[in-house]
């Protein structure tokens, strides 16, 4: 069906399929306006076309793919509750319940897009991404459980009913619709299913969440359970409470921090001696660089000495809560938990103060407020207020810390960048009061929080070197290979925590879950950042500003503002006139953000911009087109990459690019354009295959056979001619002369009347005649072809490559005719001409032709008795083949060299039988290898040489068998050019004179009939010697 009408010439008369293809291409390159117009035209002609409807339904503002932590809170038996109270009361209770959930979610940085109903879904990680969103979701869930429990107590007292909630937290990839503020995907559904597994008044988390929060919460495993719509049982855990402290077990080894460790050891030794003059050591650096690991090492030093270690830990959730790290320490040392009553809290604080030597009467009034204990619990408040009270509390906390240490000790202050001002003041007071016996080890990210003065030393931690990273990776997993370790190192940029998590998560696809949230938090600075960072990630680790702007399509000022924001967030850094992701893992996270449709469009835009740049790196362009699902464009780009590689002489690379191009076409819809491109690609790959592996290459032959299967409709004249010529040569190298004749006949039928094609066909016919042993017919075809080619002026572009090769090959085959006629000088001249003409064929034609010429020169030298020169030529053939990656000629050269070694031994009167048999065996192995690859052309020459060796070794029967094998091969395939020599040699293996005479006469008769004067003369010499 076609679509008529409209002013666009391209759409007039176009088929629906063509219109849809163009619409899809427009979507993929981000041109929604064109796609919409095209889809609308399709629907005008076919109102129910589902593909057009799908195209129109693509969102204008695509969302993001995110791994989000999802909390689902569900009111238990809400329907039953609605039957037990008045509607107004029910509305009040449900409203209060929703308020509690919203408050807890907001407190921990989550977001609820919709508040309808009593089942509430909250997302953590959007619109603001934090580096601990899974932990925040669980903390919010615990708070919901507690707050609803208190609400239930109130409802029981006032209305005589209870309300309970189930909370579940799950984590997984979702489609985040930023325009509609909603999430889609299995993970969102699973969050509700996980919630349904929780007992009333409890919080459960899926296994995906448990792996991220196990160090921060006490978990109780629950047997896996089936849920509706999921194909396997859900592994889940009940969250009991927050953990009191994290375990130090399983710490990774310390690698590349020898200087820092030495500094800590020296400082700790001074503290134990009471002579420490610089009590503060600050380890500063980006997240994951190893600050906490060094702080833990300092704690271990003190603990191993029997000294006290105190920990003050900052929290991103408590940056505005006064003295929060001190409160956490006090709660831990007093064994206070959330459920501990106020009076009991006071009693335990009093006991701890007394135990460490403080006067409770003086200390408790100043420390109790830190724990949130009101005076009504039973103590007299301090008689001070305002700044005076603030100073007294700071002094008392410092005094308490020093009393806990009781002498030499270590205070570890982790994540000081999250400390509130009051806790930083305590740190300052502690440093001033250290008295040479307290080592304060602080960790933090770069910023303005560093205490001033001479009491601290700041140590900025650099990334590990490549060698150090390799040591750490091997220590974490000794089973990894060198390549696997290098792959990990390349992703992690020397950041120890990244290395640890990537090694531990090698079984996971993409960025490990333990790294996703902290990396995403750095990326997701503002909504405007997302499209820019998505495009940058698609371009690669490093990118050019102009390329990025062309892809994103924003103004230069807007782009500079976003890049500045990403640079401030530690995501990007300047690099060689452009920009680079600070870490490869950051780029990987950014690449995950774009939904598949967006990602395809970005890849297509990048490729289009690179192509317009003039001289792109075609391999890179092809990869982008492939990711964009623009299969024909990808295949064409790989074809260009192959051309570039061929010009550099990289034959294997050129073939690999063509293989990748053909792989793209496997999924492309069949049509004339696709088939025409496949034919061109296979034609090129087949030609390169013949150059590398010889015309015996079955893979190359399969490519040419496929070209013929595609039919004349998809092959231009030059492509069909080149394909048939290559197939003919394939059969010639295999000495399959019957099939070669059939292909030549097809060539004559279709192209015999064309001026440029005729001499090429004659060269092929002459080659067949040569191999059959008809020197006169061969000379007739080849000499005529040579004259035609010599008189042609400018080579017809349509058949240029094949004609140019034929100009060289005709001289080579005329040389072989001269050789068989015994005219060695003429043969040498013709080979020299072939080499000269082959020099202009380019790559891979020139290397191939020169290898062929050297091979035939080795034969000429052997037949003319110049063995030293033959050895040099054979060795040169091997070197040449190795240089250009010509596998077949490498084996051919090795076979010639083996033959020369054998003939040299024959010429040495001192050579014994054992050596001759060994040389015969070696040459046989080379010959068998050639034939196993399908190379049969000329190989009966080596049968003759093996026969000569065995005759000289005194093994005439074995010699006769080998010579007979060569003759039978010739009988089977029609390659009789060396039969006369084989018969002549076989004559000397017979015992009876009659048998010798019969073979010698047959050899002379055959040589005369073939015009092989060389062999006829040798028969005459043998005849004279016999008489």
From TrEMBL:
Keywords: ATP-binding, Nucleotide-binding. PROSITE patterns: GUANYLATE_CYCLASE_2 (PS50125). The keyword Nucleotide-binding applies. This is Adenylate/guanylate cyclase. One of its GO terms (molecular function) is adenylate cyclase activity. Pfam families: AAA_16 (PF13191), Guanylate_cyc (PF00211). InterPro entries: A/G_cyclase, AAA_16, Nucleotide_cyclase, P-loop_NTPase, TPR-like_helical_dom_sf. Residues 69-195 form the Guanylate cyclase domain.
């Amino acid at each position: 069906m076609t679509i008529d009408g409209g002013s666009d010439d391209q759409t007039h008369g176009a088929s629906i399929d063509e219109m849809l293809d163009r619409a899809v291409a427009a979507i993929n390159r981000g041109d929604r306006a064109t796609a919409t117009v095209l889809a609308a035209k399709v629907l005008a002609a076919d109102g129910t076309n589902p593909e057009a409807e799908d195209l129109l339904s693509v969102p204008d503002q695509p969302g993001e793919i995110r791994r989000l932590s999802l909390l689902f809170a569900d009111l238990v038996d809400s329907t039953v509750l609605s039957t037990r109270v008045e509607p107004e009361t029910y509305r009040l209770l449900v409203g209060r319940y929703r308020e509690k959930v919203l408050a807890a979610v907001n407190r921990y940085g989550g977001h609820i897009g919709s508040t309808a109903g009593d089942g509430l879904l909250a997302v953590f990680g959007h619109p603001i991404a934090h580096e601990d969103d899974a932990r925040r979701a669980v903390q919010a869930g615990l708070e919901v459980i507690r707050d609803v429990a208190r609400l239930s107590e109130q409802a029981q007292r006032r209305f005589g009913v209870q309300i309970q909630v189930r909370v579940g937290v799950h984590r997984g990839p979702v489609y985040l619709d930023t325009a509609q503020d909603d999430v889609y995907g299995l993970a969102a559904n699973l969050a509700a299913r996980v919630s349904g597994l929780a007992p009333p008044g409890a919080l459960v988390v899926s296994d995906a969440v448990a792996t991220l929060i196990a160090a921060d919460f006490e978990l109780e495993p629950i047997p896996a359970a089936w849920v509706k719509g999921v194909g396997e049982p859900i592994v889940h855990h009940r969250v009991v409470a927050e953990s009191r402290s994290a375990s130090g077990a399983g710490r990774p080894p310390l690698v590349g921090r020898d200087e820092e460790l030495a500094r800590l050891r020296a400082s700790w030794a001074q503290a134990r001696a009471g002579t420490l003059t610089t009590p503060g050591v600050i380890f500063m650096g980006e997240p994951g660089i190893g600050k906490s690991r060094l702080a833990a090492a300092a704690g271990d030093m003190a603990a191993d000495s029997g000294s006290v270690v105190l920990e003050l830990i900052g929290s991103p959730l408590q940056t505005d809560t006064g003295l929060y790290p001190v409160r956490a320490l006090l709660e831990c040392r007093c064994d206070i938990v959330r459920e501990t009553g106020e009076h009991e809290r006071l009693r335990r604080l009093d006991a701890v103060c007394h135990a460490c030597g403080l006067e409770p009467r003086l200390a408790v009034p100043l420390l109790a407020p830190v724990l949130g204990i009101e005076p009504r619990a039973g103590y007299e408040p301090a008689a001070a207020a305002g700044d005076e009270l603030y100073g007294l509390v700071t002094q008392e906390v410092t005094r308490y810390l020093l009393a806990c240490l009781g002498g030499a000790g270590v205070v570890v202050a982790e994540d000081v960048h999250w400390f509130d001002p009051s806790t930083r003041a305590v740190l300052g007071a502690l440093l001033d009061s250290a008295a040479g016996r307290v080592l304060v080890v602080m960790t933090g990210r770069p910023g303005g929080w560093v205490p001033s003065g001479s009491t601290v030393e700041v140590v900025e931690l650099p990334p590990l070197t490549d060698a150090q990273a390799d040591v750490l990776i091997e220590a974490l997993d000794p089973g990894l290979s060198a390549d696997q370790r290098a792959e990990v190192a390349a992703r992690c940029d020397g950041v120890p925590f990244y290395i640890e998590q990537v090694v531990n998560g090698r079984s996971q696809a993409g960025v490990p879950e333990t790294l996703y949230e902290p990396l995403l938090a750095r990326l997701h600075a503002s909504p405007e950042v997302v499209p820019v960072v998505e495009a940058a990630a698609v371009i690669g680790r490093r990118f050019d500003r102009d390329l990025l702007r062309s892809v994103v399509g924003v103004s230069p000022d807007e782009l500079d503002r976003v890049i500045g924001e990403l640079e401030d967030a530690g995501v990007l850094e300047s690099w060689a006139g452009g920009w680079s992701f600070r870490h490869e893992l950051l780029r990987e996270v950014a690449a995950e953000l774009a939904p598949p449709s967006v990602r395809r469009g970005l890849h297509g835009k990048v490729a289009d911009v690179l192509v317009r740049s003039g001289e792109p790196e075609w391999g890179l362009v092809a990869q982008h087109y492939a990711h964009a699902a623009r299969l024909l464009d990808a295949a064409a780009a790989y074809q260009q990459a192959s051309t570039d590689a061929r010009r550099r002489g990289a034959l294997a690379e050129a073939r690999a690019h063509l293989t990748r191009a053909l792989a793209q076409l496997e999924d492309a819809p069949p049509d004339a354009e696709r088939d025409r491109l496949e034919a061109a690609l296979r034609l090129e790959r087949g030609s390169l295959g013949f150059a590398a592996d010889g015309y015996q290459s079955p893979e190359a032959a399969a490519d040419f056979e496929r070209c013929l299967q595609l039919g004349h409709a998809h092959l231009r004249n030059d492509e069909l001619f080149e394909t048939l010529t290559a197939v003919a040569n394939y059969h010639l190298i295999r000495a399959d002369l019957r099939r070669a004749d059939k292909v030549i006949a097809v060539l004559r039928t279709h192209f015999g009347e064309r001026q440029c094609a005729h001499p090429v066909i004659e060269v092929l016919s002459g080659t067949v005649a040569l191999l059959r042993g008809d020197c006169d017919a061969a000379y007739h075809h080849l000499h005529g072809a040579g004259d035609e080619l010599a008189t042609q002026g400018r080579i017809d572009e349509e058949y240029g490559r094949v004609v140019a090769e034929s100009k060289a090959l005709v001289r080579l085959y005329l040389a072989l005719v001269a050789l068989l006629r015994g005219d060695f000088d003429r043969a040498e001249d013709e080979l020299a001409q072939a080499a000269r003409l082959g020099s202009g064929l380019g790559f891979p034609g020139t290397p191939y032709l020169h290898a062929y010429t050297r091979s035939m020169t080795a034969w000429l030298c052997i037949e003319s008795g110049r063995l030293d020169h033959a050895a040099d030529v054979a060795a040169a053939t091997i070197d040449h083949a190795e240089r250009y990656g010509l596998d077949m000629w490498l084996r051919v050269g090795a076979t010639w060299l083996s033959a020369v070694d054998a003939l040299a031994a024959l010429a040495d009167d001192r050579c014994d039988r054992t050596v001759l048999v060994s040389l015969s065996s070696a040459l046989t192995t080379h010959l068998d290898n050639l034939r196993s690859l399908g190379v049969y052309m000329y190989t009966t020459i080596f049968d003759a040489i093996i026969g000569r060796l065995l005759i000289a070794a005194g093994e005439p029967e074995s010699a006769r068998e080998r010579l007979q094998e060569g003759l039978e091969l010739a009988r089977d395939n029609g390659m009789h050019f060396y039969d006369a020599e084989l018969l002549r040699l076989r004559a000397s293996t017979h015992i009876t004179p009659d048998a010798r005479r019969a073979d010698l006469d047959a050899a002379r008769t055959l040589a005369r009939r073939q015009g092989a004067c060389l062999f006829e003369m040798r028969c005459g010499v043998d005849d004279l010697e016999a008489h």
